[in-house]
Amino acid sequence: MKYIEWAGKNFIGMFEAGGEQFMGYMTGIVPLLIVLLTFTYSVIAFIGEERVDRAIRYCSKYMILRYSLMPILAVLMLTNPMAYTFGKFVKEEEKPAFYDAAVSFVHPVTGLFPYANAGELFVYLGIANGVTKAGFSQSSLAVRYFLVGIVVILIRGIVTERLTKFMMAREAKKATA
Q1: Which of 112-121, 124-133, 151-160 has the highest mean pLDDT?
Q2: pTM of full prediction above 0.85
Q3: Which residues contact 121 (CB under 8 A, 6 or more apart)?
Q4: Residue 71: which pLDDT band, with cuts at 50, 70 and 90?
């Protein structure tokens, strides 16, 4: 009987703790996400969609911008998973590399811009909680994640583009032989 009482109490306790956590999100992170999204869309509207479109087309011409600035803008403006639609601005053989760069940036951006990939927020907050308990700054972690993320997406984009072009050339050579 004692075990049944314990199981019942702790079973409902798990849901009570979940409810408290949910209310914390509703009064904390959800309003922040809404304000950040509103700000981003306001900036796009202020600049003008056509200008933003031209800027992205310009970035797609240069490898360094294609795998640094383009994925950053895509993730910040369109959020995950819509960010991958920026791939329409790159050549067919560059699409896998752009996708690789963009998908690799959805986690590092979470510390500074949590609205960009809310699904990763729980992972980031778990890591940030441990960093804070260790006595370090969560802000410093967010900035470092962001900066390292830029370096990583640039490297991944360049490497993936070269591998894709190599494999496409090899396949073309096989087809003609």
Answers
A1: 151-160
A2: no
A3: 29, 110, 114
A4: very high
* Domain extents in the chain: 1-46, 48-176
- Tell me which of 12 and 132 has the higher pLDDT: 132
Percent of the chain with pLDDT over 70: 97
Q: Which pair of structure tokens corresponds to residue 134? A: 């260790």
Three state DSSP letters for the chain = CHHHHHHHHHHHHHHHHHHHHHHHHHHCHHHHHHHHHHHHHHHHHHHCHHHHHHHHHHHCCCHHHHCCHHHHHHHHHHCCCHHHHHHHHCCHHHHHHHHHHHHHHCCCCCCCCHHHHHHHHHHHHHHHHHHHHCCCCHHHHHHHHHHHHHHHHHHHHHHHHHHHHHHHHHHHHHHHC
- Nearest to 152, CA basis, from 113, 111, 103: 103
C-alpha separations of 34 from 11, 116, 132 in Å? 33, 11, 25
Mean pLDDT (whole number) for 76-89? 83
